[in-house]
Amino acid sequence: MILPIVAYGDPVLRKKATAISEDYPKLDALIENMFETMYGARGIGLAAPQVGLAIRLFIVDASPFGDDEELTEEERTLCADFKKVFINAKIVEEEGDEWVFNEGCLSIPNINEDVFRKPKITIEYQDENLEKQTHTYDGMVARIIQHEYDHIEGVLFTDKLSVLKKRLLKTKLSNISKGKTEASYRMKFPLAKKKR
């Protein structure tokens, strides 16, 4: 089932998400619905707050970067097969010199900006079977994970922009929260006027 994606301005996107217990109801169905929602919106990652749930869950499928000629062959190979579920994740280390990449977000349609992030991370999490995992990732996969991880911490990629850039985007962001934007997928706008 495709879920509506929550737009910029909804308070759920600013909450630090809570841990998921082992008896969380219908977790498998939620994960399946999130993948369906993400693919329907042509995304590469989706966090539970983006579908209105302040819980520590996000999904990633980096396969669209499997043919990106700007990446190294090693990175393309990693991205091509990278599809994972992250539950109760915690980034324990970020390493290296920050690098820039143009990011977007399904909750903030039609805005893409250059964001600096560390190239290498180590993350502890539970997989879809609630098995504990610890992995180190780098490059594009690390960036996608960091972007989605920020969502469960109540952080958006626009928070990482300069004061000037934020000021320039203020009107666009305000319009998104009011539903004055175009998206090719179903969205839920916090400040949109209800039609009578």
Summarize this structure as a short list of keywords or feature phrases.
196 residues, alpha+beta, Peptide Deformylase, five-stranded antiparallel sheet, two-stranded parallel sheet, 4 helices, 26% helix, 29% strand
CATH architecture: Alpha-Beta Complex
Chain oligomer state: single chain
Shape: globular
Main sheet: strands, sense, barrel: 5 strands, antiparallel
Describe the structure.
This protein is α+β, with helices and mostly antiparallel strands and 196 residues long. The chain has a single domain (5-188), classed as Peptide Deformylase (Alpha-Beta Complex), CATH 3.90.45.10. It is 26% helix and 29% strand. It contains four helices and nine strands, in the order βαββαβββββααβ. A hairpin with a 5-residue loop joins strand 7 and strand 8 (132-138). The longest helix has 15 residues, at 163-177. The radius of gyration is 16 Å and the shape is globular.
Strand and helix layout:
Elements: E1 5-6, H1 27-40, E2 45-47, E3 57-61, H2 73-80, E4 83-95, E5 99-105, E6 108-117, E7 120-126, E8 132-138, H3 139-152, H4 163-177, E9 187-188
Parallel strand pairs: 1-9
Antiparallel strand pairs: 2-3, 3-4, 4-7, 5-6, 7-8
Short characterization:
This protein is of the alpha+beta class and 196 residues long. Helices cover 26% and strands 29% of the residues. The protein is globular.
